[in-house]
Each structure stands twice: as C-alpha cells, then as structure tokens.
Design brief:
This protein has no helices and 21 strands. The chain is mainly beta. The two termini are 45 Å apart.
Amino acid sequence: NNLVWNTDTLDMSYLFEEEDTAGTDTLKLSSNAKGNMDLNQDLWVSYAYPIQSIDTSAILLHKTQNDSLIRPVNFSLERDSQRLNRFHMSVDWEPASSYRLQIIPQAVKSNYRAYHDTLNTTFKTREEDYYGSLIVSLPGVESEFILQLIQPSGKEEKVIREQFPEDMKEGSITFRYLDPGEYQVKYIFDRNGNGEWDPGDYPNRIQPEKVRYNPERIEVRSNWEYEIKWDVSQEPT
C-alpha cells in the first residue's frame, strides 16, 4: 500500500502530407532581432506553430553599412528544447555594427496548413564599452559546480548567466558583456554533475544539492571590470 513512481514509454507517430498554400493562413515570424542586440545574446525566431523543418539556405544574415549589404555572416542554428515553435541562431557578433536578417516564405514549416510571410528586419549591436565584466576567483574548487549570476527581484531571483567547471580558467570564472546593474553570485554544489540543481528525494533520504550565495551585491558599471575572491568551502557567517 505504498505509492511508488513508475515510468512507461509513450510512442506516438503521425503522417504529414504536403499541400499547396492556396487558401492557407498567412502568419508572421517574430524575433528579437530589433533595436540593440546584446553581444552575449543569441538571436531567436518564433513561429505560431510547432516547427517541423527549417531551410537554412532561406535564412540570410548580413552585416550592413548605410543600408547596403556588406557580407554574409555565419551562424549556427539550434532548436529550442522547451519551446517547440522557436529556434536560436548563435552568432559571433561584432560590436557597434549593423545587421539585417531576412527569412523568405516557407523557410520555416510546421505540421499545419499555414505558411509565413517574409521576415525582413534590421538591428544593431551595442558598443563594447557599454558593458562591464565580473571575474569570480574560486580557490580550491575541485568538485562539479554551477556558478550562477543572478539579479534579485523581491522574493524571486532572475538567472542572468550560468558557468560550469569547463568555463574556468586559472581558477577563475569570467562573466563578460554584462549590462550595467546590480548582481549577486550563487554557487550550486552539483553533486551528480548533471548541470542542474536537484531538489532531493525524501523517500530515498537524499538531501537537496547544497547552495550558497555570495553576500556581496555587485554594482556593475559600463566599461568597468570587477573581481571578487570567494572560498565556497567556508561556511557563511
């Protein structure tokens, strides 16, 4: 008479038949490619329906000058693991530069009888000296961990960036291209090395993974580098 967790496999399949676009709905793509693009930010594109396929040859990204196309820009494309209607474009941005993104109709397809209009948008990247940076020195760290940069907001916290042991260089983690503002650093003892915080398991008497906060509130300013040294093995006072 004990409740236990059990996992079954759900196997689903479907058939999709290509049809012409006559009489179908015309939808729009949405994107964060507008205004100022942060140098540490991926470009994302969303569709109204879950995405079935993406024709990368129909996606054009160019660096521009005076509204003229200068050169094509390379990018890597990845589907969002949580939003089935979104994909991300990772780009090595150049500071203080102008770009144009063009996606022609039917480059992005769904399982539904619909197609999208052309997406044609221009945007800029910020100047490099707009950002600040933070270096966190972690002496004596040997185990797996997750180092989070957060912004406290009332009773909640917003995770701005995450870094892992493979991001450490010479005993330090560096957070670059930070918007000016107040930040705090959070350290998660990633006991099982799965890259996320685990809350524990009461029936199996497994404690949640330990978490520590650096007590210092860090005010990051433009064109400014801040460095802290944090021995996470020391119990907080």
